[in-house]
Design brief:
By secondary structure, this protein is of the alpha/beta class. The chain has 6 helices and 19 strands. β16 and β17 form a beta hairpin. The structure holds zinc ion (ZN). Zinc ion binds next to loops.
Length: 304
């Protein structure tokens, strides 16, 4: 198994199961791939954005992640991502990708995990008392409604946390899981209560933009949202990399793709963005969690 730096608990858990574990953090991608190839790594615990970027490095090394490596599954988490991103990871690597949820303040990865049904993450309710509240009022939301996850640790002997506001937005998935486990499931994280963007008074979450872009064939998974102020109005700029084989297309093909992206985003978020298409590999690569939003308005200057 291979692990990202966040997974100390994960590391020892896997060792307890008898798995050979290779702790390795983001960065020096070619060395990571060499390790994966030589040790015939079967499972990786990885940031979703890095799983897609690592696959491009595999291709650059003349390898096919589906044929030349032994990876069968990935546990992805630690940054909000969409179902479309999961599907891209599964197709690119020809693996199963399971969503995981955790936060350093609790136990790192391992607060909630998907089972083989891949229909929501079972939260370990024997370890955590979970509530979903309205982020504005702190009051519980209706069962199944989206709100902020609040956790209380039940089994910690040191630094217990009581009703800890995670800022992560999710919901309890109603009903029971076909796998038979009875711990309730939380839905994939919809974003953070503090990463909502307000563009000319319209509330927008970065994941709405990701989801829309990934539904357009030919568009890649790496994007950057920038908010500018122009003539006292907010202006949304979205730069997105194309899938690796698309930049060779004709100018009219690229213009068509750009037009479809603008129209799809306008329909989803109610704001017309400026869309810039880039050749794959042209956005700055983050060493850790991907930087998706830069607010360049004079009153903001905050990255999230
Ligand atoms: Zn299940």
């Amino acid at each position: 198994m291979g692990f990202s730096r966040a997974g100390i608990g994960f590391h020892y858990g896997a060792e307890k199961l008898g798995a050979l574990t290779i702790p390795i953090g983001p960065g020096n991608s070619k060395r990571q791939i060499w390790f994966m190839k030589e040790f015939k790594t079967t499972a990786i615990h990885i940031l979703p954005s890095y799983a897609l970027r690592l696959a491009t490095h595999v291709s650059e090394m003349g390898l096919d992640p589906r044929r030349d490596l032994s990876v069968r599954m990935a546990f992805v988490g630690a940054e909000p991502h969409t179902e479309e991103t999961r599907q891209r990871i599964e197709q690119t690597w020809n693996i199963k990708a399971y969503n995981s949820y955790g936060l350093s303040e609790m136990c790192g990865p391992g607060v909630a995990f998907e089972c083989p049904e891949q229909s929501g993450m079972h939260l370990w309710e024997d370890n955590f008392l979970a509530e979903i509240v309205d982020p504005a009022t702190g009051m519980p939301v209706d069962d199944g409604a989206c709100g902020e996850l609040v956790l209380t640790s039940l089994n910690r002997s040191g630094t217990p946390l009581l009703r800890y506001r995670t800022r992560d937005l999710t919901r309890f998935i109603p009903g029971t899981c076909p796998c038979g486990r009875t711990h309730r499931r939380i839905d994939r994280i919809q974003g953070r209560s503090d990463d909502m963007m307000i563009i000319n008074g319209v509330n927008i979450f970065p994941l709405q933009i990701e989801q829309t872009l990934l539904r357009i064939p030919g568009i890649g998974a790496n994007y950057l949202i920038e908010i500018h102020e122009e003539n006292y109005m907010d202006k949304l700029h979205v730069s997105v990399e194309l899938a690796s084989d698309q930049f060779q297309g004709t100018l009219s093909h690229l213009e068509g793709l750009q037009g479809r992206a603008v129209a799809a985003l306008r329909d989803e978020i109610g704001v017309t963005p400026v869309v810039r298409l880039l050749e794959a590999g042209n956005l700055p690569a983050a060493e850790g969690k991907a930087v998706r939003v830069i607010d360049r308005r004079p009153h903001a200057g905050k990255e999230c």
